[in-house]
Amino acid sequence: MWYIILYHLTERSEFFILIFGVFTLGAIYFYWVVIKPLTKFEIIGLAILFRVVLLFGTPNFSDDFNRFIWDGKVSLSGGNPYELTPTQMINKKVNFRVGNIEEIYSNLNSKNYYTVYPPVNQVIFAVSEFAGNGNVQSSVLYMKLFILLFEIGLIFLLFKMLRKLKLKESLAQIYALNPLVIIELTGNVHFEGIMLFFFMLGLWFLLTNKIILSGLAIALAVNTKIVPLLFLPLFLPLLGLVKSVRLYASIAVFSILMILPFLSETLINNFGQSLELYFQSFEFNASFYYLVKGISHYLLDYKTSLIGSFIPIAVFLFAIYLTYDLYRKNKTSNTSKFDLQLFISSAVPLMLVFYLLASTIHPWYIINLLVLCVFIPNKAIMFWSILIFLSYFAYSNYIETHFSGNFHDSNWYYFLTAVQYILVLTVYFFDKKRERLAIGKSNL
């Protein structure tokens, strides 16, 4: 009932209804995960049911689907979605073969930005727009069907991996029944579910020692969302030099083949500009980034551009440290067998640091962390997956009425952001401290 109310009867501007509904779903979710784990068939049945409820209708909490449809229209018209911004295309009076151009253009939230969606996404956009025949709701439905099918595949894959590692199958509900996953993927049409299917498939192939197939799967993941690039250094100490080179080479070759149909002189430059905008200009639901920005304004009276440069450098250095730490932990083990849980033990803190330093953290980003918690449960990440809905205060009627939609002028926005991160970090460090105490007692 709450999924129906939230998705079909609630606007994202109705903040208190949204939060009450999400927290209610979160309480039920934690009851299942912590107190009364469900069976495999109950998990599969409920996971599919909750997603099917959100299958019809356009998203109420996100308008990103307009850009997906736009990119699909560009591809179907014989154009390259990476070459021009929507505004440049309109000004050049590009001849589109698919209708509804004016309607979609007017609803875009990124008219002056180059697309940031990799090739696999572009294929899905084009296929969905072709199948939808120019109808917005039909195109969105086909995108949702893509996401739903890949999510079902991911859930079955998680069960398979849990059996392989001799872990409880009920752990799959950490991902399969999480309200954030259900609302933001099938509901709001975000493609993390497809990327995660390919990435976890790549990890499955590493578990079964199929390096080339793993390279193909991870290449498909990277060409859906570029996030998995973050994890590539972590494979080196776990696979050894020879297997790692084979894996990296196969990822590179398959990625090049996927990019070739879109390759042009402007692709790299335009995509690079979009990434620079992400690190330098976009700001939403950040944590330490806001603190550093505040210090910069206090000391310099402006936000220094060094903040944006610091983020990727700091994450890169932390990735190098974790790679070294993995090598130290794994130097006496046999690299012929990929240790998934050891990989995840480093992948989670790496991505967590990246998100804590980033300038933009949309709710669906956390799903990338959540899927890893299936194998090493982390209460803080699961807690965060519910608390992160506090960020929707930025779109509330209060912000629209008092600040004309500019949430950065609201102290309440920063207060709720601080509450979110303080609670999450408190749970995270409390759990870490308890783990260290348990390890210390076991060594006595």
Walkthrough of the structure:
This protein has one domain (2-283, 303-360). It contains 22 helices and no strands. The chain has helices spanning 2-9, 15-35, 40-53, 65-76, 86-91, 101-107, 119-132, 136-164, 173-176, 179-187, 192-207, 211-222, 235-239, 241-259, 267-280, 288-300, 306-330, 340-357, 367-370, 379-387, 397-403, 411-442.
Give keywords:
22 helices; globular; mainly alpha; 444 residues
What is the fold's blueprint, element by element?
Elements: H1 2-9, H2 15-35, H3 40-53, H4 65-76, H5 86-91, H6 101-107, H7 119-132, H8 136-164, H9 173-176, H10 179-187, H11 192-207, H12 211-222, H13 235-239, H14 241-259, H15 267-280, H16 288-300, H17 306-330, H18 340-357, H19 367-370, H20 379-387, H21 397-403, H22 411-442
Summed up, the domain count is 1
> H/E order of the elements?
HHHHHHHHHHHHHHHHHHHHHH
Strand content: under 5%
What fraction, in percent, of the residue positions are helical?
55-70%
From the spread of the alpha carbons, the general shape counts as globular
In brief:
By secondary structure, the protein is mainly α.
